[in-house]
Each structure stands twice: as structure tokens, then as C-alpha cells.
Design brief:
Layout lengths: L2 H15 L10 E7 L5 E7 L1 H10 L3 E4 L4 E4 L8 E8 L6 E7 L14 E3 L5 E3 L7 H4 L2
Parallel strand pairs: 1-6
Antiparallel strand pairs: 1-2, 3-4, 5-6, 7-8
């Protein structure tokens, strides 16, 4: 990449990042939505590093708080998410990424992590079918 292109890209990233309101731990919540169906796939958290890598590569990178590390979404399964559009909320406190989902967005085998519906009595019902077997994917 030419020097002026790199500087322009860095300027764009700096301008975008200045609009993001990172929480006290350095995270921003990100809603991941399937671009084709508009279904919400999951909610994840990004650090500045995760967001920078996501924007740079056009794929969702997340900060796994439980593992305390940066990871490509779908790194283990191959079920990556290609960014099609990105939005920031009115206060800069959260992001929305519309993605092209490869296979499924949920490690439990469902297309979306939101496969359980809660009724007025607090009972849950699975409303989707699994699209892959996690036992076969996560060996």
C-alpha cells in the first residue's frame, strides 16, 4: 500500500474510533445481524484491536472475555462472518454489523444465538432447527 493510502486509511480509522464510546473495560458491544434475513445472530464485544482488525479484514473479530483474547468469529468452526455494513448508535455506545453469515452464527449449532423464545410465564421453547452438529465441528 502506498504511504498516502495508508495515512488516509489511518485517518479514517481514527475518525471512526473517536466516535465510539468504549466502556470502562475498553469494550464496545456489537450486535451482529444477518444481512440477508435481518435476523440478529449474536451480541459480542470488541476492543479497539478487534474493531480495527474487523474493519481492516472485513470479517468479524471479537474479544472473548472468557478466554481474554482476540479471535476471528468462526475461527474454530469456519463459520465466519463477512461484514457488509456497519452502523454506530446515536451515542456511540454500540455498533451494529450486518454480515454475510457462513453456515451459522451460534456455537450451539443454530443459525442465530437467539433460538429460544421466552413466553409470558418464563418458559423457553426452541423455535429453530440446528443447521450443524457442534459435536462434529468442535472436536
Amino acid at each position: 500500500m502506498k504511504e498516502h493510502e495508508r495515512e488516509k486509511k489511518e485517518g479514517v480509522m481514527k475518525k471512526f474510533f473517536s466516535k465510539v464510546q468504549w466502556n470502562d473495560k475498553g469494550y464496545v458491544p456489537v450486535i451482529i445481524q444477518d444481512a440477508a434475513s435481518s435476523r440478529v445472530l449474536t451480541l459480542c464485544y470488541m476492543t479497539e484491536e478487534a474493531l480495527a482488525k474487523s474493519v481492516e479484514e472485513g470479517k468479524i473479530y471479537v474479544f472473548r472475555r472468557s478466554k481474554n483474547k482476540l479471535m476471528l468469529k468462526g475461527e474454530t468452526s469456519g463459520h465466519i462472518q463477512i461484514i457488509r455494513e456497519m452502523y454506530i448508535d446515536c451515542e456511540g455506545k454500540s455498533l451494529l454489523c450486518k454480515v454475510e453469515q457462513k453456515v451459522a452464527g451460534c456455537h450451539a449449532g443454530y443459525f442465530s444465538c437467539y433460538f429460544s423464545k421466552i413466553d409470558k410465564d418464563g418458559n423457553t421453547q426452541i423455535i429453530d432447527e440446528k443447521v450443524f452438529d457442534p459435536k462434529e465441528v468442535y472436536r
